[in-house]
Structures are given as C-alpha cells and as structure tokens.
Sequence to fold (249 residues):
Amino acid sequence: FSELSTLKKAIEGLNSKIQGFENQAGHKAKLLVLRGIAHDLLGPVAQMQFHLASLKTMPLDIESSEVIIDLTDSLKRISAIATQVKLLDHKSDEFGDYDLSELVSTEIKNLKSSKAISELGLKLEFKGESNLKLQVSKSEICRIVHNLVLNSAQASNSGGNIEITVKREKDNAAIQVRDHGCGIPRHLQEQVFEPDYTSKPGVGTGLGLSIVQHICHQRGGTVTLESDVGKGTSVRVAFPLGQEVIHAT
Fold:
C-alpha cells in the first residue's frame, strides 16, 4: 500500500495547488471589478469638481463656503482612491535606481501635514538606513508607505506614535510600519489583505493592505503582518537586494 500513500500525497498536493489558483483567480476578479468601479467614479468626480470650482467664484456666506471646502476635500479623497485602484496592474514607466530611505522619508514628510494625521495629533517617527538602492517604481513605493501609514492612523488613538523604519535584513530591503493601536484579532489577520475587508465601515476603504500586497506580489516582494489585540500592529514589506525588482507586464 506504499504506492497508495504516495498517490494520496500527490493528490493532496494537487488539491492544495488548485485551491491556491482558485484563491488567486478570485483575488484578481475582485481587483478587476474594483478597477471598473474606480474608472466609473472618476467621471462624476471630475464633473462635481468642475461645478464646485464654478460655485467658488460666486459670493457665498461663511457656512456655504465651509460646506464647499468639505465637499472639495471629500472629492479629492474619492479621486485619489479611485486613481489608486485604477492603476492596479498598470505597467509603470517610473522604474529607476532609487535610495529607498529617501523615497520613504519624502512620503512621510507629505503625510505629516495630511488631515488624517494632523487631526488626530499623531506622531510619525522615521528611521532609515542609507544606501539601500533598488530598481523600483517611485510611485508604488509612495503608495505602499501612504497606505500603511493611513491604515495605522485609523487604528491609533489620538496623540499616538507610528514608527516607520527602512533597513537591510540579510538580502532584503525592508519597510516596516508599526502602530500602538487596537490591534487585529488572530482569526481576522488573514482577511485584512482581502480587497473588501475593513474593520471600520465608513472610515476605511478596505483597500489599503490589499493594494500593498498586490504591489509586492507584482514586484517580487513580500508583505507580512504581526498584531496583538490592545498592543498594536506591525506590517513589514521587503524587496530583494542585489537584483532588479520584477517589472510586471
């Protein structure tokens, strides 16, 4: 019966592969739907922005002006999210030899002045190891950092710290973002990378970690998550050093 045992293991391995392909296909299908929705959103957003620009030229009372400012900010956020999703699987033409710490540091400076960070009084602490050069897409690295930090911000308490580090880890260059917020229960940790998952309906979009994971897979990198309820969450993104990051086709 030793032959049957070998056959059993082979079938189990095949079933595992099939399940993996099914999960991957389901993930891609969800991303395709999201890209279609994002494309459809951008048209009405542009039209609303045009009308708001016209309203700004008219004499308005203080209350109306404040409403228009809020609407403009909301439309900017919608437009940014839609553009980000629409660009998934888009072939990037921005690949170059960049210092990873410099890219991350620049994005952190931009985030410090953002409404999502300033309103909560969050502190962004950055430490970066120099001379970690990679052939990467500048825009994609910025999107990774942007999404990870905003995810951490949504999980953090007012006045909390978010720590961002860039360092060499053996043959990898790693970006790590850690918060000291609510944490994620163990049984939900695999779900956070799904395109439609969000722990805070009405606050987050459920796309942040999904987009990060997608970019990493496209470029030959990895993303890992560690979290303890009540203590916080750490997400680590790593790209291989000493070789060119994969250019997706």
Summary: Strands lie at 95-99, 123-128, 133-137, 161-169, 172-179, 222-228, 232-240. Residues 201-205 have pLDDT under 50 and may be disordered. Residues 2-56 form the longest helix (55 residues).
